[in-house]
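Quick one:
INPUT:
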């Protein structure tokens, strides 16, 4: 018998738009109690308001995943409001792809800080809670870039490969009581596409997005599937891509 999403306490980073927003709405609609973290206070407030008005249960906390204290506060918010945390979805992302010759070193640093340090900060915050409870699930959002490197995505791909490696290492250490899942999206229609790129590069990315990208709801469904598996069953890895993506 499958678990029900209903009643599950789920914390989500990067929740104010794109995949995170779709996740929040999808899980809340299925009865999860969601704890939403994002940097943009107003977007967070609006999302919590929409979920609540639709009959769902949600709280928000301003969260920058590169700040260890923010992740600790997000996890603590779940415990404070609902008494526990069942799932942490590490979804915060930053996609500032560019050729190496452009030497966008600050953006390289930001991608590594969000995808790698941010993921580790979430693990550090939630793992002791999961151990204490004797249950919990990490769901880490990767990328198909972790499997196939395409120019000019070298640094982005490297950071997502790190997500994949950290997730697999954590899975091996998790023991029989915890679950660890990697969900790797292909081209997804989010506002991050084309962000912080040259106008020419951004135009190409946005044109491709509009032509082939899948909706964020596809990833929300995959995450829901991983959560609702019976206790003791770990969906270790899911890759979701539009059929048109080579």
């Amino acid at each position: 018998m499958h678990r029900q999403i209903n009643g599950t306490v789920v914390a989500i980073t990067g929740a104010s738009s794109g995949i995170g927003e779709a996740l929040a709405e999808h899980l809340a609609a299925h009865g999860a109690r969601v704890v939403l973290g994002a940097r943009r206070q107003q977007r967070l407030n609006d999302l919590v308001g929409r979920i609540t008005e639709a009959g769902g249960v949600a709280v928000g906390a301003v969260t920058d995943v590169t700040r260890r204290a923010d992740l600790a506060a997000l996890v603590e918010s779940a415990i404070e409001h609902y008494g526990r945390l069942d799932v942490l979805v590490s979804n915060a992302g930053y996609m500032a792809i560019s050729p190496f010759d452009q030497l966008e070193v600050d953006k390289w640093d930001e991608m590594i800080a969000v995808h790698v340090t941010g993921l580790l900060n979430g693990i550090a915050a939630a793992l002791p809670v999961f151990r204490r409870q004797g249950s919990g699930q990490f769901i880490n959002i990767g990328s198909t870039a972790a499997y196939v490197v395409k120019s000019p995505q070298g640094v982005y791909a490297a950071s997502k490969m790190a997500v994949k490696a950290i997730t697999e290492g954590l899975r091996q250490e998790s023991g029989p009581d915890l679950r660890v899942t990697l969900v790797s999206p292909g081209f997804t229609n989010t506002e991050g596409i084309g962000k912080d790129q040259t106008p020419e590069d951004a135009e190409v990315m946005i044109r491709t997005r509009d032509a082939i990208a899948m909706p964020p709801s596809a990833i929300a469904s995959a995450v829901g599937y991983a959560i609702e598996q019976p206790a003791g069953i770990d969906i270790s890895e899911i890759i979701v891509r539009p059929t048109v993506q080579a």
